[in-house]
Amino acid sequence: MTIRVLIADDQAMVRAGFAALLAAQDDIEVVGDASDGVEAVTETSRLRPDLVLMDVRMPNMDGLEAARQILSTPAERRPRVLMLTTFDIDDYVYEALRMGASGFLLKDAPPGDLIAAVRIVADGDALLAPSVTRRLIEDCFKARPTPVGRSSRLDVLTAREEEVLLLIARGLSNPEIARDLFVSEQTVKTHVGKVFAKLGLRDRAQAVICAYETGLITAGDPRQN
To answer: How is domain 146-224 classified at the CATH fold level?
Structure first.
């Protein structure tokens, strides 16, 4: 199936470069572009792409607000959003992940990484590189008040589901969680689905953030390693 992509970036050369790279792939079609957040929202509504590559910093409306508006549309019309940034650690990207963006990618990443990221996100997975994403979230939370104790928000989870959420927060994949808990991968998938449903989470990126916000894990917690 062809992945329909919209590119939103205020630099014409960046848009053209990304478009040329992605359009050369047999399974990717670049359906349009946008030079600011307002255009990104309008063109997303008009063109209905599967995925939006969204620059964080743009004029008129930044990528964060544009992503918020796009991700608040009804589920049947909602594309995946992959944030682009020039900064390795960027508080804006944290907020985007919190809202439901599927991940972030550095603009200077190798071409192969961009192509792989588009395919991963379009397939429904969060682009969650554990080492980078955990460091991003840790650094963001170091500047925020540390939650006092475990949040009552977690009370809807069983003990096993809470354990699965903790392992997700450590960056483990489903097969790794299955090995850690000595259960089948299908059992893990079931637990993950229940965790997401009970806590209103869209993907693993939001799950990691939730684990920090509820006090299940804290910045510097040795259980991450």
So the answer is: Arc Repressor Mutant, subunit A (1.10.10)
Residue 130 in tokens: 């554990």
How far does Cα 25 stand from its chain's mean position? 23
Q: Is the separation of the CB atoms in 8 and 52 below 8 Å?
A: yes
Q: For residue 81, give both structure tokens.
A: 């959003």
Query: What letter represents residue 183's amino acid?
Result: V
Q: Which among 121, 20, 101, 100 has a CA at the least distance from the CA of 55? A: 101
Q: What DSSP designation does 79 have? A: P
pLDDT means per 10 residues, the chain with 225 residues, are 96 95 96 97 96 93 94 87 76 75 85 90 68 63 68 95 92 89 95 94 82 82 53
pTM: 0.72
Query: Looking at domain 3-127, what is its CATH homologous superfamily?
Result: Response regulator (3.40.50.2300)
Q: Are 102 and 203 in contact (CB under 8 A)?
A: yes
Which residues fall within 8 angstroms of residue 206, CB to CB, at 6 or more apart? 97, 98, 100, 126
DSSP of 176-203: HHHHHHTS-HHHHHHHHHHHHHHHT--S
